[in-house]
Amino acid sequence: MFRSKVKALRLLQLGYTLRHTASCSRLVLGIETSCDDTGAAVLDETGAILGESLHSQKEVHLRTGGIIPTVAQQLHRENIERVVQEALERSGVAPSQLAAIATTVKPGLALSLGVGLEFTRQLVRRHDKPFIPIHHMEAHALTVRMLQPVSFPFLVLLVSGGHSLLAVARGVDDFLLLGHALDEAPGDTLDKVARRLSLVKHPQCSSLSGGQAIELLARDGDRTKFSFRTPMGQTHDCCFSFAGLRNQITMTIMKKEAEEGVEEGTLLKCVNDIAAAAQHTVAAHLAKRTHRAILFCKANGLLPPSSPTLVLSGGVASNQYIRKALTIVTEMTGLHLICPPAKFCTDNGVMIAWNGVERLREGKGILAPDVDVCYEPRKNLP
């Protein structure tokens, strides 16, 4: 009885979707509020960006020394209506012309996800539009297909402030997870190291995020001045761990503060060298685990023998040193490395809209506007 009801519901949803997509041009509005950026964009089925808007909370969180979930939630609430309206106006598209609305519902900060989901619920019901719930990391993985033809399957390394994973993308909603972060993400590690080094006080770094500050100062640093152990050297899988590395760096900072006779919060003379060594060790860890994943994929025939591809995406993928490290690995193993431009690596509404386009095209995960959806703060790729 239960199965027959579920089947009937799915058939109703499919019929609803077919009626709508047949009568509407295939335009998708994407909404992103998973962390500290409020983004929206309208795309057509070719991936053309018709209009977009983005409100960044970076300056606010720099002043508070990190993202405070309740502050992020309030800023999303204050800006989401304006951001969505701007994206629609810039695209010249009215809500009635949309084929569907896609919104991030997992994973991310619970309070931030809740704002986007509640706004979308009201929007799809007001305009009677299909709703496409989006997995944030799936959107990062697929963004590259909006920019150039990349066929499935391909290997993807997603690295950001909140996530780190390796997976084989076999389809729009089909991912084989090979490895993930066991504790904290690389972006989170770099941000915390930057805060411990008080880089916000550095004249060159006052307006930069922690990861950006580390990358900038590392250019003038000598990474060989400090030797940090690459994590998980004896663990033979493709997972990541960064908490132990951060502890090593913190202990080194404390030692140098004692040697220089300064208190915590004072800029160290060797700050550039510590930044360079920290960045190098994060890059080395990512490169080594990715190398293991490539060898595993080759041994098990998970990638095409001709022109296998590694896609590097997520906010940390904007780091040029990390890109160079992955370039060395892919050149050595015969893979083609593809990185989206930096503006598409960080969170944005464009990638959510494109994920919606891909799912709409294949008829996957499209819901009627009255179907209840819950956000999921912690959710790995399937």
UniProtKB/TrEMBL annotation:
<dbReference type="Pfam" id="PF00814">
    <property type="entry name" value="TsaD"/>
</dbReference>
<dbReference type="InterPro" id="IPR043129">
    <property type="entry name" value="ATPase_NBD"/>
</dbReference>
<dbReference type="GO" id="GO:0046872">
    <property type="term" value="F:metal ion binding"/>
</dbReference>
<comment type="function">
    <text>Required for the formation of a threonylcarbamoyl group on adenosine at position 37 (t(6)A37) in mitochondrial tRNAs that read codons beginning with adenine. Probably involved in the transfer of the threonylcarbamoyl moiety of threonylcarbamoyl-AMP (TC-AMP) to the N6 group of A37. Involved in mitochondrial genome maintenance.</text>
</comment>
<dbReference type="InterPro" id="IPR022450">
    <property type="entry name" value="TsaD"/>
</dbReference>
<keyword id="KW-0809">Transit peptide</keyword>
<dbReference type="GO" id="GO:0061711">
    <property type="term" value="F:tRNA N(6)-L-threonylcarbamoyladenine synthase activity"/>
</dbReference>
<keyword id="KW-0496">Mitochondrion</keyword>
<keyword id="KW-0819">tRNA processing</keyword>
<keyword id="KW-0012">Acyltransferase</keyword>
<keyword id="KW-0808">Transferase</keyword>
<dbReference type="GO" id="GO:0005739">
    <property type="term" value="C:mitochondrion"/>
</dbReference>
<protein>
    <recommendedName>
        <fullName>N(6)-L-threonylcarbamoyladenine synthase</fullName>
        <ecNumber>2.3.1.234</ecNumber>
    </recommendedName>
</protein>
<dbReference type="InterPro" id="IPR017861">
    <property type="entry name" value="KAE1/TsaD"/>
</dbReference>
<keyword id="KW-0479">Metal-binding</keyword>
<comment type="similarity">
    <text>Belongs to the KAE1 / TsaD family.</text>
</comment>
<feature type="domain" description="Gcp-like">
    <location>
        <begin position="49"/>
        <end position="354"/>
    </location>
</feature>
<dbReference type="InterPro" id="IPR000905">
    <property type="entry name" value="Gcp-like_dom"/>
</dbReference>
<dbReference type="GO" id="GO:0002949">
    <property type="term" value="P:tRNA threonylcarbamoyladenosine modification"/>
</dbReference>
